[in-house]
Design a protein that fits this description.
Blueprint (H helix, E strand, L loop, with lengths): L1 H20 L3 E3 L1 H11 L1 H21 L5 E10 L4 E7 L8 E7 L3 E14 L1 H68 L5 H36 L7 E3 L25 H21 L5 E14 L8 E12 L7 H67 L5 H36 L8
Helix pairs in contact: 1-5, 2-4, 3-4, 4-5, 4-6, 4-8, 6-7, 7-8
């Protein structure tokens, strides 16, 4: 029976050695973040949006410059107008009517027009709103990066947790195997019962699938990390370090009221949108303002019955000012102002509600971190006690002063304590990563 178990685990270990024989990329958390920020399609899309709004802003500013257009036309007269004239004396009997065609068969025109606004307050206000659109796109791109950083951290920590769990179940298997060997020796020497022998076999058999499942979870966690950072799923990677390295960071010194939401991307986006709506109210009000523009035209035209010969070109030009004063629009402008003001008021309420929700979220993450710290210290004490109890039970079973059931109970308590310690560290760093994302601090760590 032992030979079968050993063979199965040997295959498992050999498979792991084959994977390790390939070129494995070791990633630190900073490495994973840098790869994700450079390869993520989400970030690239956000950057393209910033670029697009930049072009839109430049296009809006073009309205301040003269608009110059060239034009040309050709017109062929198909049926000319007739003029009927009376020929001869005034005597109706001796006079006769004659029809005469007027107009030219061909008309040519070439010209240029130029126009530029001189006074247009609404246009100037719309340019400011276009600039705010670029600012909003930049903040949304920053928000995409913050979300990506949080996802990478969670995936990286999950991979580290999966490795820690695998190591725990691997130790459980090693202990079960040693206990099986010891029990078999006792059984052959008639110092252990058949019940103890069967219990040892069962414990060893149960340890193998747990180790398989833990190893599978490590592979899945690494796949998830590769998917988040944009690496090929076929490329072997591994994470550096373990969860215990973060235990020194398990301190909560900040109060929820002392933490600022100035860098929170949701609040910043809402603030920009609120400013845009406020400017939109002013833009709608400026619809009552008069506008002044300048325009000029220079045209050459020619008429001829022959499309090629006898072309005579005649110039024509003008320049002038155009003043427009809004008087009456049936209440449209007034209702546009009311609508824009209503949207601005809605946004103000949304900002207030979102800030409350963010404050609650900050409190939740701080509470989760505090709970994880307390649970970690308790699980550390439990782990020390469980380790001591297992060592005593193992020695006692070796000399025949404890049963295998007592040893298995001690192993179970030790396993639960080890998993508890790792889980509590993971809970802390996970809540901390989420808090940093809410506060908008993650980007300060990634250069």
């Amino acid at each position: 029976m032992l030979r079968v178990f050993t063979t199965v685990v040997a295959v498992l270990m050999v498979g792991g050695m084959v994977l390790n024989a390939q070129t494995t990329t070791l990633l630190t958390l900073d490495d994973a973040l840098k790869i994700a920020l450079s390869e993520s399609e989400t970030v690239k899309i956000a950057d393209k949006e910033v670029e697009r709004t930049g072009y839109a802003k430049k296009g809006a500013y073009a309205s301040l410059f003269p608009q110059i257009d060239l034009s040309g036309s050709y017109q062929r007269t198909l049926i000319k107008n007739d003029i009927r004239a009376m020929m001869g004396s005034d005597n109706a009997m001796t006079s006769m009517m004659k029809d005469t065609k007027i107009g030219s068969s061909n008309t040519f025109s070439l010209g240029a027009t130029a126009a530029m606004p001189l006074v247009n307050a609404a246009l100037w206000k719309s340019l400011k709103i276009s600039g705010q659109s670029v600012e909003l796109a930049v903040e949304k791109a920053r928000g995409s990066r913050l979300n990506l950083v949080a996802q990478v951290k969670q995936a990286y920590y999950s991979a580290q947790l999966a490795k820690e769990v695998f190591n725990v179940y691997k130790d459980v298997y090693e202990n079960a195997k040693q206990n099986y060997v010891l029990t078999e020796l006792k059984y052959n020497a008639q110092k252990a019962s058949e019940l103890e022998m069967s219990t040892a076999k069962t414990s060893l058999a149960n340890a193998i699938p747990n180790m398989y499942n833990a190893e599978s979870n490590v592979i899945l966690a690494l796949w998830q990390l590769k998917a988040v950072i944009g690496m090929s799923l076929d490329e072997p990677i591994d994470v550096v370090g373990g969860l215990k390295e973060y235990s020194s960071e398990m301190i909560v010194a900040d109060n929820a009221e002392d933490l600022s939401l100035d860098q929170n991307t949701t609040m910043r986006q809402l603030a920009i949108q609120a400013d845009q709506l406020l400017e939109t109210v002013k833009l709608r009000q400026l619809a009552y303002a008069p506008t002044l523009a300048i325009a000029a035209n220079f045209t050459y035209s020619s008429v001829s019955n022959d499309p090629i010969k006898n072309l005579g070109w005649f110039p024509y030009s003008y320049a002038g000012l155009s003043l427009s004063i809004p008087i009456f629009s049936g209440g449209k402008r007034l209702n546009d102002v009311r609508q824009a003001r209503n949207q601005y008021q809605q946004m103000q309420l949304q900002v207030q509600n979102t800030e409350k929700q963010m404050r609650i979220l900050v409190r939740q993450k701080l509470a989760s971190m505090e709970t994880a710290i307390k649970a970690y210290h308790a699980s550390q004490d439990a782990l020390q006690s469980a380790q001591k109890a297992y060592d005593i039970a193992a020695k006692s079973y070796e000399v025949g002063r404890a049963t295998l059931t007592q040893l298995n109970d001690a192993q179970l308590a030790l396993t639960q304590s080890q998993l508890g310690v790792n889980q509590n560290v993971f809970n802390f760093i996970s809540a901390k990563a989420e808090l940093e994302s809410v506060l908008g601090e993650d980007m300060n760590e990634v250069k």
